[in-house]
Write a structure and sequence with these properties.
Layout (H helix, E strand, L loop, with lengths): L21 H11 L3 E6 L8 E7 L4 E8 L4 H16 L9 E7 L2 E7 L12 H17 L11 H4 L15 H8 L2 H5 L3 E3 L8 E3 L5 E3 L6 E3 L3 H6 L1 H5 L4 H6 L9 H19 L10 H20 L4
Antiparallel strand pairs: 1-2, 2-3, 3-5, 4-5, 6-9, 7-8
Helix pairs in contact: 5-10, 10-11
Length: 308
């Protein structure tokens, strides 16, 4: 288990409802059909955009995100991409449905259905891991083949990552570089994969089933990629993910070397990301990336027989 001081569920520094321009608030209320009487900001995640559950005077609720196209352009574009992805998902996919999305007064705003649910417990529990794992098996089944509107491939999305090991310091950098050089054949596939699977993008409902949120960067790739990414957090929290992996319907038959290739690829990403300056708007993002880096490094050391 890797101890952490990350305040799970309270990592975001977000805009509140009162921070949105009056014209934007008015437009949101018009789209929702009633005045907003309560706004509960969501503390998980690492982006500074507005993200709140809004309760209206008629009792209805919606989850609304918003970001300034000028002052928060990367996040506004991310929300725009998410709205396009949600619109392209089949209705059966276990994800909160898109209600509407539009640009208002140089703010991009999107609304999804409100779901009575919670984030997985941290530390992870076996029950929450089972729920999240079942969710990803279902999404892989429903999204194979990927809907035609999704054209970006995993080979394209991760294309720059193998080169990271030519400039990152690591006792086994040469081995990691050799592993990631083979990434193309490993990550290729015809399943739509989420690529950002972690606890703050998962919702567990009261009946024990789970939903997958924040579809910002889906790509066409191997069906098992999301299921392996899911295991980083649980392994860091002390669960026996190797036993889980061995019994998993998507992961059990993947060649171990292929799993190592993808783990090495993601390790490079987190190693580089964790070394960057901490943005003022997201004080915990580098700490979270460094924690995932350390979990992956330890996992690969165990799998590859490195000295730890």
């Amino acid at each position: 288990m890797f101890p952490t001081t990350i305040p799970h569920g309270r990592t975001a520094r977000r805009l509140a409802w009162v921070h949105l321009p009056p014209l934007v608030r008015r437009a949101v209320e018009q789209r929702l059909g009633a005045p907003v009487v309560e706004a509960v900001s969501q503390g998980g995640g690492f982006t500074p955009g507005f993200a709140s559950v809004l309760t209206c005077a008629d009792g209805t609720r919606a989850f609304v995100k918003a970001a300034s196209v000028k002052a928060q352009r990367p996040f506004a574009e991310s929300y725009r991409e998410e709205s396009v992805a949600l619109a392209g998902l089949p209705a059966a996919v276990p994800a909160p449905g898109l209600l509407w999305a539009e640009e208002v007064e140089e703010w991009f705003v999107l609304a999804t259905e409100h779901v009575e649910a919670r984030a997985p417990h941290r530390p992870w529990t076996d029950a929450d891991l089972a729920a999240a794992s079942a969710l990803l098996v279902t999404t892989a089944e429903l999204l194979t083949p990927a809907p035609a509107c999704f054209t970006t491939t995993a080979e394209e999305e991760f294309g720059s990552w193998p080169a990271l090991w030519t400039r990152l310091e690591h006792p086994h950098a040469a081995e990691l570089a050799a592993l990631t050089a083979r990434y193309g054949d490993v990550v290729a596939g015809e399943t739509l994969v989420h690529t950002d699977v972690r606890d703050d993008n998962i919702l567990v409902r009261p009946d024990g089933t789970a939903l997958l949120c924040d579809w910002n960067w889906p790509v066409r790739g191997a069906a098992w990629l999301d299921s392996l990414l899911l295991l980083i957090g649980p392994r860091g929290d002390g669960l026996d993910v190797d036993a889980h992996l061995a019994a998993h319907p998507l992961l059990a038959d993947v060649p171990p070397e292929h799993l190592d290739v993808f783990l090495a690829l993601v390790l490079g990403y987190f190693t580089l990301s964790a070394s960057q300056p901490t943005p003022r708007t997201s004080p915990y993002v580098r700490t979270a990336q460094a924690w995932q880096r350390d979990v992956l490094d330890d996992w690969l050391a165990e799998r590859r027989g490195w000295d730890r």
